[in-house]
Amino acid sequence: MTTPSIELKPSSHPLSDAEREEILASPGFGRHFTDHMVTIKWTEGRGWHEAQLVPYAPLSLDPANMTLHYAQTIFEGLKAYRQPDGTVATFRPEQNAERFQASARRMAMPELPVDLFLAACDALVTQDRAWVPGSGEESLYLRPFMIASEVGLGVRPANEYLFVVIASPAGAYFPRGVHPVSVWLSEEYVRAAPGGTGTAKAGGNYAASLVAQAQAAEQGCDQVVWLDAIERRWIEEMGGMNLYFVYGNRIVTPELSGSLLPGITRASLLRIAEDLGYEVAEGRISVDDWRAGNEDGSLTEVFACGTAAVITPVGSVKSARASWTVGDGQPGEVTTKLRKALLDIQTGAAPDPHGWLHRVG
Prior knowledge:
Blueprint: E1 7-8, H1 17-24, E2 36-43, E3 47-55, H2 66-70, E4 73-75, E5 78-82, E6 88-91, H3 93-106, H4 114-127, E7 139-148, E8 160-170, E9 181-186, H5 203-218, E10 223-227, E11 235-238, E12 241-247, E13 250-254, H6 264-275, E14 279-283, H7 287-296, E15 301-306, E16 310-318, E17 323-325, H8 333-347, E18 357-360
Parallel strand pairs: 1-3, 9-10, 9-16, 13-14
Antiparallel strand pairs: 2-3, 2-8, 4-7, 5-6, 5-7, 6-18, 7-8, 10-11, 11-12, 12-13, 12-15, 15-16, 16-17
Helix pairs in contact: 3-4
């Protein structure tokens, strides 16, 4: 089956420059959306077809749409940054495309070709490039997603799907500076188990996490930290972000266990930390290791990483049995250094030695 080209059907009534600039002055995160979206259909026996860039608009769903009943839905998240010369670049979109394929395989959905994923993102960024903010770590956040579009009831993979890319301007995640978060160790709930859907960016994973996040808030914490599903003692993730533990010059992140999401920021930081001369490792870290390391001073910093916030320092930990402070409770030197190094590459303020930036247009 041939890969379809994307037909451009731009809006005849995009937002005015003044209205757009007013939004870009304070975009927040995920609150405003650009003028267009890209949609591509998949039908059994026909493959991918009807690839279009069209005005941003609501989707029309039949009450018997299979996604509403059986949750065949996956998504990705990546960013486009304005470069110093005025051009725009996305960060490692090929990795998002490949992870999207992996999520589709796990959820019994069709795999979108990598080149079509990239073409869809490029088309939207090119059309709505005026929406890409132009200062600091501000960016245009892209949300590709796919849902089952077949109408009917019956527990089985659908035979029709819809792929969509939308975009939202994103301000600095920490507009008043980077502040450490407090975390709640969830011993009652688990995010995922080996053999489950933890390695897929599936909507159901996030729905299942909300009750634990609400529990964290009830305990006065900003985020939840997930433990392994079997022993409930090994650290896995923080909310929807990967975690890193800093032991002086040695940086460790929990190894991929079959239930952790393989984060693209996580993988990038492994390489950047090594470039900066740190010793890096993937391994197993228990709750007791975390607490003891902070008590004896060997564990100096902890941070989480992901597309939205880039790097988030962890300042304090609370569980049903204990609570403790990470380091001095403030963003550490290594956390700050890695965050700056990654952002400098993404925004073009530093060289891109690994060819991670994908120029658009």
